[in-house]
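B., you asked whether I could sanity-check this one before it goes into the benchmark set. Here's the sequence:
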Amino acid sequence: MKIGRRGFLSFVIGGAAGTALSPLPWKLMDDSSIWTQMWPWTPVPEDGETNYVNSICTLCPGRCGITVRKIDDRAIKIEGMKGHPVNDGGACLLGISGLQLLYGPTRVKSPLKRIGERGQGRWEKISWKEAISTIVAKLGDIRSKSQSHTVGVISGSDRGSIPRLLERFLTVYGTPNFFRMPSIRDSYELTLHLMQGVQALPGFDFENTDFVLSFGSGIIDGWGAPVRMFRAYSAWKSAGVKIIQIEPRLSNTAAKSNKWVPINPGTETALAMGLAHVIIQENLYDNVFVSSYSKGFDEWKQLVLDKYDPDSVAGITGIDSGTIIALARSFANASRPLAICGRGDGSTPISLKGCMAVHALNALVGNIDKKGGIRAISDMEYINWPEIEMDAMAATGMQQERLDGAGSGKYLFSRYLTNRLPEVVNSGEKYPLQALFVSGANPLYTVPDTKSIEKAFGKIPFVVSFSSYMDETAQNADLILPNHVFLERYEDVPTPIGMIQQVLGLEKPVVEPQFNTRHVGDVIIQIAKGLGGSVANAFPWDSYYSCLKETLNDKWETLVEKGFWSGTEMMNPALESSFETVSGKFEFINPDTGAMPQFKPINIEGDERLYPLVLIPYDTIRLASGYIGDPPFAIKTVEDTVLKGEYVFVEINPKTAESAGLHEGQRVLLITPKGKAEVKIHLFEGIMPGIIALPRGLGHTAYDDYLAGKGINFNTLIGMVEDPDSGMDAAWGIRAKLSKV
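And here's what the prediction gave me:
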């Protein structure tokens, strides 16, 4: 049998998730060194001494350990680090393509100052001294007018030394406006806080579960730590673990599960409640856990039994009642069942009630803080810096309400609501944002309703990007202060979400900085020192390196030698000490808010009479949809039923297409209340009638010719729908129509 290049890539990268991590196909990936010669900027090393450096890949939230092979000082190949707790030798497509991000043309090579209108791409090179002086002067002027609270930061994370340095700077400067990019982590954090009373990340014991009930989580489509999930999936198939995937579209995860359960999009919460009804009605729940370690069950039980019988839930979800009953029984009768949620790759939140309903299923079967279940994993407490001494101006500024409303009013328990920022800035209902810094994020690409956030950025007088690449947000900044890329810098990397043990990684420089870039940590320290006074006093370090070494303290040598520090696997705690609620128990109903898991429809945007179809996004491991865009090698692996030339394909059920007179490959205009785009039709039996789907990760207007101008950014076609319980963006789709060109 002959196999072409695209077919070979399909086999290696996507064909069998478990096989893709075995030695054979990854040995075959050596051929990638040949394919990369297609790009003229790829360096070809001369013969020399081979050496290896261990580090951490931070291109996605997975935070895998990597080993980089070098010839003299030239990095030539990235592989997974053997023995690392997250990936143990495995690597994903984005990770192995990382050298193209190190040596590629998308790098910002020096500080840049905008000289034309925003977005025109007109820049002039400036020195680091001028760049930092400009920022110090601007921030000094704002502070002198007692307006320090009008400065903000958007960060890709709030964990680790860099986000903490940014927060520390904002605090001593005098503003509460530190914003973290949204993800499923927001939903889980709030759920764990309300139901278990803890400030923690969810840890999933995938390695020991025997039944996985996934409410849309793209287990092998980029969710969680992708390589860990590939390995877990492979182990599940070998051990006979049952995998149930619930979603409207046949994703790779659904196709490789034991059962795909198609569901009307946006009704997953109702299904969780319907499963709970059966489990309670048939007395299949863990009586010991419920009676001894939970509170509020009787009230919630009554709600479940009154409103969520299988027939009623069938009418909402489109899943027949027999399937609902069988699914509930299978889940409850498993020895170590685990329910998880988070659409696609988990880079967007879901409704609070939806996350709570899924978590309640884990509580019903008593699989919290047990082998094969879910655990609350607290952050490692290794950052112990001196207390900040705020002056009067900082104290006054910190008393101002956050612009996004998080932590106050009806959103008292939400920590970040970055999705609300564009509307707040555009409406002018609160104080203006006069300066914004962006680190490790690309909100002008990843936040829904692109036009709205572009408009908001246009209202902010001073925008600074720390991006290493000329991404969409950097294109619309006033200053770009390029950070070293992940292969050029030291940085601590805390435990990735989903792990059941604490893991601290150390990103180490594999090569010297290739261009005139500077570590963002050093820039923060230099800006603070330039401002002087109490701001400078809060940053006693001479450099970020000295700060990091002091911070990591007794772990430093281990991290430098091994690349990571790992605690022992978190032991199953006694349930008596698992919950930090007022009652000391798991709470089905939170006494402070009255919040409890139930189904409240999140209505998407659009009039059904004008827009008869429902457009939903999907994720694929081949398309990076976050801060980092696909490198050329990765974009070349995308199937020609997803992207062909400049056109992206919209998936549509053949019956829906036939009723509209549409055929395979036809060019059509896709229209939503937020925008429109010319796309091509792909007939796909694996999507429910009346629903159409587009991939996320395309439609860049920045980066290079290999990525820019291909397809459409899904976020230009969808708006934000605010969850009334949390303030998070809970939009799961948008109404749409297709028009013949």
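One thing to flag: The longest helix spans residues 128-144. Otherwise nothing jumped out at me.
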